[in-house]
Design goal:
By secondary structure, the chain is α+β, with helices and mostly antiparallel strands. The chain has 3 domains: 116 residues, no CATH class; 176 residues, Jelly Rolls, CATH 2.60.120; 73 residues, 3-Layer(bab) Sandwich (Phage tail protein beta-alpha-beta fold), CATH 3.55.50. Helix content is 32%, strand content 32%. The strands form 4 sheets. Strands 3-4-5-7-8-11-14-15-18-19 form a 10-stranded mixed beta sheet. Helix 3 crosses helix 7. The protein is globular and about 60 Å long.
């Protein structure tokens, strides 16, 4: 938890959901952990308790009052709490305003869309948002955050002139002619993956603990996205508008092709080309790849080219991860992302031990762990408790 910044307004949202009985199990665990560590927020929640249990708050939970109160709260919130505020504003003025309106907000907590309308990227844990939530989210310009696992489960949805179709972990994102400027981002947490069709027809599949930032509407000559984590791209061809993927200082430029970018390690970003051609820019150098080439952009060492095993690089897209002569440390990193667990080495020397292993994401993590123990011939054991794997 010490890695995360928790903003008071986001905690208010969770606390109101808890009182209303609409909070998810994951969010409840997160809220309880935050309150254990933050004395100021615990005191603030005590004040909220007084408001939330007042006769006025209970009266406002009446469905007949909800719609009118929601419009009043939304109007006052927009007037007094602008989207862009400094950290000092958030910790002072916003807390006062939240306490003033908390009783009214409680009434809205029973409305599914009421709480989500308040949530903005600035008010969610920001240090590592992909590890702070187990839901896949789409962040829209203006601060709207859409939970794709709940709000958009197998249905069509409109946000202004943007059309969204989400079905079986696949999102189609298309914008009308008046969509305007701005960026959206898809955030995929540990343990999941998601496919998105971008406005230009390019299809990107994001691996666990990954995010992709992209324009709501691609303008002329502008098809540029930003990646954190890993993604498989099938780029729509457009000779007049190259498609560009940026990640931690590395830039991959394509016209129409199929490739994979792995940037989990910012110091070693790997671009693997299956079809077509791409140009990789890193530091002061650039290299043109042909199918079968993998470019490794090493921090401070330029770009190196090597061949790669197609199965090892691309199989994750189908829920399989294949390792050849891989260190236990690198295997553990994948286990952590795929199964949303923490990994601890009781003996640091185990990190460098090497294995050949295939992991199927659809099977329990114990399958992979037991296989590692068997391959180690007695040199490795593990415990799994409360989301933590300990190798010993």
């Amino acid at each position: 938890m010490d890695r995360m910044k928790h903003k008071s307004h986001y905690i208010l949202q969770l606390y109101v959901q808890k009182v209303a009985g609409t909070i998810s199990e994951d969010d409840l665990v997160y809220l309880e952990n935050v309150l254990k560590e933050d004395e100021e927020l615990r005191a603030l929640c005590s004040d909220w308790d007084l408001d939330l249990n007042s006769d006025e708050s209970k009266r406002q939970l009446d469905p007949e009052v909800n719609n009118l109160r929601w419009q009043q709260i939304k109007k006052k919130y927009e007037e007094h709490v602008p989207e862009q505020r400094s950290a000092a504003d958030i910790r002072t003025g916003r807390i006062v305003l939240l306490k003033r309106f908390v009783g009214a907000v409680a009434a809205v907590a029973v409305l599914a869309m009421g709480i989500s309308m308040f949530r903005t990227p600035e008010e969610r844990p920001t240090s590592n948002p992909l590890l702070a939530t187990k839901s896949t989210h789409l962040n829209m310009p203006g601060g709207r955050v859409i939970n794709l696992d709940e709000t958009l489960s197998d249905q069509h949805f409109n946000v202004g002139t943007v059309n969204l179709d989400n079905e079986k972990d696949e999102l189609r994102f298309s914008a009308g002619g008046n969509a305007g400027a701005g960026y959206a981002s898809l955030e995929v947490p540990a343990g999941k993956q998601h496919t998105i069709e971008l406005p230009d027809g390019t299809v990107a599949t994001l691996n666990s603990a990954s995010s992709l930032r992209f324009p709501v509407a691609f303008g002329k000559g502008n098809r540029e996205v930003e990646l954190t984590g890993e993604a498989y791209f099938d780029v729509a061809k457009n000779a007049s508008s190259p498609f560009v993927v940026k990640s931690h200082g590395t830039k991959v430029e394509v016209l129409g092709t199929v490739f994979n970018v792995n940037s989990y390690n910012p110091k070693d970003i790997r671009t693997s080309l299956r079809d077509g051609s791409v140009r990789v820019h890193g530091g002061n150098t650039s290299t043109l790849l042909k199918p079968g080439d993998e470019a490794s952009s090493l921090e401070g060492a330029g770009i190196t080219i090597s061949s790669f095993n197609d199965l090892n690089v691309f199989s994750w897209k189908n829920g399989v991860m294949n390792f050849e002569d891989a260190s236990l440390e690198s295997i553990s990193a994948t286990l952590s992302r795929w199964y949303d667990v923490d990994v601890v080495f009781n003996r640091p020397g185990l990190k460098g031990t090497r294995y050949n292993l295939t992991i199927e994401k659809s099977k329990p993590i114990e399958n992979a762990l037991n296989r590692l123990v068997k391959l180690s011939s007695g040199g490795l054991n593990y415990t799994l408790k409360d989301g933590v794997v300990r190798f010993e």
